[in-house]
TrEMBL record:
It holds the Pfam family DUF624. The chain crosses the membrane at residues 22-49, 76-97, 109-132, 153-173. The keyword ATP-binding does not apply. It comes from Herbinix hemicellulosilytica. The keyword Transmembrane applies. This is Putative membrane protein. Keywords: Membrane, Transmembrane, Transmembrane helix.
Length: 219
C-alpha cells in the first residue's frame, strides 16, 4: 500500500501529467482570447507540452511562459496574418456556398478552389508554430519552412488535420473536453511532428553535460 502513495508511482506520474495538460490548456485558452496572442500562445503550448509532458524536462508553466516571451513578436505577427486569412477564407467559402444554388457549376468550382486554399492554410498553421518553438528563423523563413514541411510530409499533415478535427468534434458533443483539448492535440500531433523535425535537426555535439546545451529535443 505504501508503494501506491509513492510519488514515483506511475499512477501519480500520469495524474501529474494530466493535471499539467489541464492547467496549461486553460492558460492557453485564456491567452488566446485577445486574438493577437494566439501565435505566441500556440508556440509556447507546443514547446511546453513536448519538453515537459513528453521529455519530462522542466516545469510546465516555466517552459510555457519562457517560450511565450521569447517568440512573442514573431508569433504575434504570424498569428494575426493567419487570423486574417481565416476570416477572408470564411467569407469566400460562404460566398461560394451561396452560389451553389443559382449556379451550381460556378459555385462548385469556387468551393473546390477555396477548399484547396483552406487545406493549404490549415496545413501551414499546424506546422508554423511548432517550427517557431524549435528553430530560430525570421518570419519569412518560417513561412517557407512551414509550407515546405507541410507539403513534403503531406501524409503526416493529413493525419494531424484529422486529429484537430476530431478534437473539435469531441468538444461539440462533450464541451468540458475543451479544457484539456489544446494540450491533448499538441501531444498527439507531436508524435508525428517530432519525427519530421528530427530530419532537419543538427546532429548532437555530445551529451548536454559536456556541451552545456540542453539538447532534450535530440533524444
Amino acid at each position: 500500500m505504501s508503494s501506491f502513495f509513492n510519488l514515483e508511482n506511475p499512477v501519480f506520474q500520469l495524474l501529474a501529467k494530466v493535471c499539467d495538460m489541464l492547467f496549461v490548456s486553460i492558460v492557453y485558452i485564456t491567452l488566446c482570447l485577445p486574438i493577437v496572442t494566439i501565435g505566441p500562445a500556440s508556440t509556447a503550448l507546443y514547446y511546453a507540452v513536448v519538453k515537459v509532458i513528453r521529455r519530462e524536462r522542466g516545469y510546465i508553466f516555466k517552459e510555457f511562459f519562457r517560450s511565450f516571451k521569447l517568440n512573442f513578436k514573431r508569433g504575434a505577427i504570424i498569428g494575426i496574418l493567419l487570423t486574417l486569412a481565416y476570416i477572408v477564407l470564411g467569407f469566400d467559402l460562404l460566398y461560394a456556398w451561396g452560389l451553389t444554388e443559382p449556379d451550381s457549376s460556378k459555385g462548385s468550382l469556387l468551393m473546390g478552389i477555396f477548399l484547396g486554399i483552406a487545406f493549404l492554410v490549415v496545413s501551414f498553421s499546424i506546422y508554423v508554430f511548432p517550427i517557431l518553438s524549435r528553430f530560430d528563423m525570421t518570419v519569412k523563413q518560417l513561412f517557407k519552412a512551414a509550407v515546405y514541411m507541410s507539403m513534403r510530409h503531406v501524409h503526416f499533415t493529413i493525419l494531424m488535420i484529422v486529429v484537430n478535427v476530431a478534437a473539435v468534434v469531441i468538444v461539440i458533443f462533450f464541451f468540458p473536453f475543451i479544457f484539456i483539448a489544446p494540450a491533448t492535440v499538441a501531444l498527439v500531433n507531436s508524435f508525428m511532428m517530432e519525427r519530421i523535425f528530427k530530419k532537419y535537426m543538427p546532429k548532437s555535439e555530445g551529451p548536454g553535460e559536456e556541451t552545456g546545451k540542453d539538447e532534450w529535443y535530440l533524444e
